[in-house]
Amino acid sequence: AEYWNNFTNIIEIEEPNVNLFIDDFAINAGETKELVINLTNEIAFTGFQADLYLPDGLGIEQEDGDYIFELTDRKGSDHVITSGKQANGAIRILCFSTNLNEFSGSEGAVVKFRVTAANDFVGNYEINIKDIILAQTDESEYQLPATTTKIEARMLAKSITLDRTEVSLEATQTTTLLATILPDNTSVKTVVWTSSDEDVAVVDENGVVTAFAIGEATITATTTDGTNLSASCKVTVVPTLGDANNDAVINVTDIMVVASYILGNTPEGFVFEAADVTKDGKINIIDIVAIANIILSSETPDETQLAARVARRAALGSRLFIDDTSIQEGETMQLAVNLTNDIAFSGFQADVKLPEGLELCQEDGEYMISLSDRKGSDHVLTSAMLPDGTIRILSYSMNLNDFAGADGALVYLTVKATQHFVGDYEISIDNITFTQADLTEYSLEPTVCRIAGTTSIDGVNGNDVIVATIGDNIVVKNAKLGSNIIVYAADGRIISSEIATDDDLVIEAPVKGIYIVAIDSKSFKVMVK
Hints:
mainly beta; seven-stranded mixed beta sheet; 46 strands; 48% strand; disordered N terminus
């Protein structure tokens, strides 16, 4: 006090080029932060005093009950600093040099100290420095204006959670994720949203997630207050039932894609899970009808419909079959695939297996398979040869029209028997599935058609020898006189053994079927129908 009482020449300074101040700052609740008192001066000073007024909740670091203030390197060799709390709550700082040394420089920090914010110190506050007096070596005293420091006291985030940790979407669908940051009085509650795979799903600044493509993406919300806390949600983009080509639109193209798959191809972009509308782990005609339903009604069949379909699939006595028949080697004929049905159907698929030597004819590169007049106005038919030679046939109606009638030919196959197609063979029809417009599926029993390959009705020629069948008889003409003529049944039994004469030899066949006629060293195969 005696030191300061020596200064009697008091000069008030209002110019901004002499100032004692603390820069504005931000501090987090519970945080300890170092502050500095800056001195800007165009003239030299040897000492100063000032009163600091701190808001409640902000305390200066102490040691053994004393406030800790440190002088910076602007001090002289013998500068000292001391402090004490005043009755009005201010903390008075006193700094001087016993040898009247001056502070160096003309700007920058002269004092540093640390403050700690209370855990509930949140909001906007001020530190005021008042009653600022600077002293010079000539005992001149300068009174500076008070200064104010603005404080932004923030509450940092302690945790962040999302309202969901997993979500499933179909392509083009959206959902909004909500982020919760605690405590409630957290100062900065904004987050940054990111997606781990924007090809699958993206998220905007409001947490709105939009699904793009099948797959998984992790959507993450991260705090922006410097804590970098984060929470995530796994987004699974699942197939859209019916969108078989995964282009976010369900239309006739999806039906064609599914039909192509059923016929043994794998079209580009094909998604099995989307094509399997009935969710039964297989793709067949019922899925095509289901997609047609979606296109026509804009509604996906619900689980109740699908359950009913499964429950009713073991229906009835309907049958898809080819009548037993015969064909001559080299002959082309049309086979009728018949349907006997006691309920109406709108579509079907089936696998037809022809024996070796019986070929499905083609015209302009297309298999000669056609629907009968039992088809509806918009029924279409498509087919393909599978790798094992099976012919898969698929027919459906875009408008879910039923096939007409309850019996008769449904499909025609044009086939040709190769040379030497002689004998007893089978045509099988398997994997038969029929469907109704309401998605009811019926699996029909496999059927087998017996087909006999025969020689020409005019007989078999061999060096002027003719072996023919007329009714139930086998007729041999022009055999060399004295030749041995033996007729064998298909099981190897000898039916007849004769010696050729000048007359035609007529042998009655005991039953219809295939017979081998041996004339000396030559053999002929014929069929009695």
